[in-house]
């Protein structure tokens, strides 16, 4: 058994918690990258009150429309190529415009619907967006498009929203306010980190991603500490339990030797399921019968091994929680020097996803 249980009750609870944090803002629920590995379609269908959904690319947007999602869908990096424009029409997508090349293409196009466009300003993240001196010409040129019916909306993205004290947050936000203050249209600046750290930046729309899934955007705090509930519980089973002798070596490379006679368990999950191989080397924890037990030896493709000394009554067939309820993914992520974001995104298609409501 290798299963990701996706608790839709927790998802809806987190949505409500975020609403409480930013009560005056509408929400673009970020469901890009297959809803951070949780399953974009069932996640989106379970958020009927989300004001809009945010995705990274056209194929994600099309999947949502084909699943019957009727809310606005925003292509958060815009269209990548002029060949995608007809699909924007067909699926009635909203999109970000972040560079002059897109404006040129749009000036020559004629949409059959009224897309909501979001003009993205680069206020210091230096990834996507118009530089301050490019904003006015882009706005003028877009305003001349005959197909434009809705006021242009405005977007920026913080580089350090996970750091409450970063001066760059204030600098970026002040620059944004200064540029957009005289323009009509709605504004958005905040992802999860900024929703918590920068209430003044909530504006008309917030764009939470990771917090919807009950995971913290901060390395020093878990989602639970932020009042969220983990949505994904990744689990496997204990396939075998061995009583090994002092000096016995475990797994590939024989990297780990038993320091005493001890019980060792074999878990039905490995890097082929998206679990980080590094976690074996760093002795990441898993939870068995509510007890944390450290991994030992190398994580292999289908299997990994665990020290059962903390849980002497563990037996074959026991459920092993890899992360989720009972063990925040943030803890595993910290052990392997990454973020919960990356771990949940990497869960592979071999893992069976099961959706339900667990209160
Ligand atoms: C992914 C993304 C978000 C959501 O970020 P979280 O940290 O997961 O809340 C918001 N805005 C943009 C532009 C993004 O790409």
Sum up the structure in keywords.
alpha/beta, binds pyridoxal-5'-phosphate, 18 strands, 12 helices, 359 residues, single chain, 6-stranded antiparallel barrel, 8-stranded parallel beta barrel
Structure characterization notes:
This protein has helices spanning about 10-20, 30-35, 40-45, 60-65, 85-90, 100-105, 130-145, 165-180, 190-195, 280, 330-335, 340-345; strands at about 1-5, 25-30, 50-55, 75, 95, 115-120, 155, 185-190, 205, 230-245, 250, 255, 260-265, 285-290, 290-295, 305, 320-325, 350-355. The chain is of the alpha/beta class and about 350 residues long. Strand 6, helix 7 and strand 7 (about 155) form a beta-alpha-beta unit. Helix 6 packs parallel to helix 7 and helix 11 packs across helix 12. The chain is elongated, with a radius of gyration of 23 Å. Bound molecules: pyridoxal-5'-phosphate. Pyridoxal-5'-phosphate (PLP) binds near residues 76, 191, 207 and 208.
Short description:
It contains 12 helices and 18 strands. The protein is an alpha/beta fold and 359 residues long.
Please specify the SSE layout and strand pairing:
Elements: E1 2-7, H1 8-21, E2 26-30, H2 32-37, H3 40-45, E3 52-55, H4 58-66, E4 73-75, H5 85-91, E5 94-97, H6 100-107, E6 117-120, H7 132-143, E7 153-155, H8 167-180, E8 187-190, H9 192-197, E9 205-206, E10 232-244, E11 249-250, E12 256-257, E13 262-267, H10 278-281, E14 285-288, E15 291-296, E16 304-307, E17 319-323, H11 329-335, H12 340-346, E18 352-356
Parallel strand pairs: 1-18, 2-3, 2-9, 3-4, 4-5, 5-6, 6-7, 7-8, 8-9
Antiparallel strand pairs: 1-10, 10-13, 10-17, 11-12, 13-16, 14-15, 14-17, 15-16
Bound molecules: pyridoxal-5'-phosphate (PLP).
Residues 30, 32, 76, 157, 191-193, 207-210, 217 line the site of pyridoxal-5'-phosphate.
């Amino acid at each position: 058994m290798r299963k990701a249980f996706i608790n839709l009750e927790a998802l809806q609870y987190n949505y409500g918690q975020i609403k409480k944090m930013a009560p005056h803002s509408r929400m673009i629920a970020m469901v890009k990258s297959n809803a951070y590995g949780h399953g974009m379609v069932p996640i989106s269908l379970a958020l009927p009150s989300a004001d809009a959904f945010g995705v990274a690319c056209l194929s994600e947007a099309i999947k949502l429309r084909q699943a019957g999602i009727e809310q606005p869908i925003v292509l958060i990096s815009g269209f990548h190529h002029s060949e995608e424009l007809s699909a924007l029409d067909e699926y009635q997508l909203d999109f970000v415009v972040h560079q002059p090349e897109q404006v040129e293409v749009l000036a020559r196009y004629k949409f059959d619907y009224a897309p909501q466009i979001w003009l993205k300003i680069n206020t210091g993240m230096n990834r996507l967006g118009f530089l301050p001196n490019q904003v006015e010409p882009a706005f003028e040129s877009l305003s001349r498009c005959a197909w434009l019916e809705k006021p242009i909306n405005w977007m920026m993205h913080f580089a350090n929203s996970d750091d409450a004290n970063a001066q760059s947050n204030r600098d970026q936000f002040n620059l944004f306010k200064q540029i957009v203050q005289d323009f009509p249209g709605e504004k958005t600046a905040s992802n999860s980190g900024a929703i918590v750290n920068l209430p003044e930046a909530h504006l008309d729309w917030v764009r939470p991603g990771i917090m919807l899934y009950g995971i913290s955007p901060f390395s020093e705090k878990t989602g639970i500490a932020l009042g969220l509930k983990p949505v994904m519980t990744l689990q496997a089973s204990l396939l075998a339990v061995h009583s090994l002798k002092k000096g016995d070596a475990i797994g590939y490379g024989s990297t780990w030797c038993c320091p005493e006679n001890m019980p060792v368990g074999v878990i039905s999950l490995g890097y082929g399921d998206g679990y980080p191989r590094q976690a074996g080397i760093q002795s990441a924890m898993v939870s068995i019968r509510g007890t944390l037990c450290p991994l030992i030896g190398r994580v292999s493709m289908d299997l990994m091994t665990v020290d059962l000394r903390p849980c002497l009554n563990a037996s074959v067939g026991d459920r092993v929680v890899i992360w989720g309820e009972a063990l925040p993914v943030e803890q595993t992520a910290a052990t392997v020097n990454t973020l919960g974001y990356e771990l949940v995104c990497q869960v592979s298609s071999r893992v069976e996803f099961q959706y339900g409501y667990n209160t």
